[in-house]
Design goal:
The chain is built from four helices and three strands, in the order ββααβαα. The chain is of the alpha+beta class. It has a three-stranded antiparallel beta sheet. A hairpin with a 5-residue loop joins β1 and β2. It is globular.
């Protein structure tokens, strides 16, 4: 099984960073279902800006934590 760390851009241009083992399903949840994170539910629609794939959840969570500590410009450098 693979795990993903992902970055979403919300409608207010803020970023949401998370982890999942099913990126397509989770993205759909963020945009359409009541199971999306509260943060994204009130900032829909969201756009997938970036993702990375890992072999373990621990690796994905570590990367999520690392990127959450970055300034906005450094996050944006991942996809620009």
């Amino acid at each position: 099984m693979s795990y993903f760390m992902y970055i979403l851009e919300c409608s207010d241009h803020s970023y949401y960073i998370g982890c999942t083992n099913d990126l397509q399903k989770r993205f759909k949840q963020h945009n359409q279902s009541k199971w999306g994170a509260h943060y994204t539910k009130i900032r829909r629609p969201v756009i997938l800006k970036y993702s990375e794939q890992f072999e373990t959840l621990l690796e994905a969570r570590h990367r999520e934590s690392e990127i959450k500590g970055w300034r906005r410009e450094k996050k944006e450098s991942l996809w620009k």
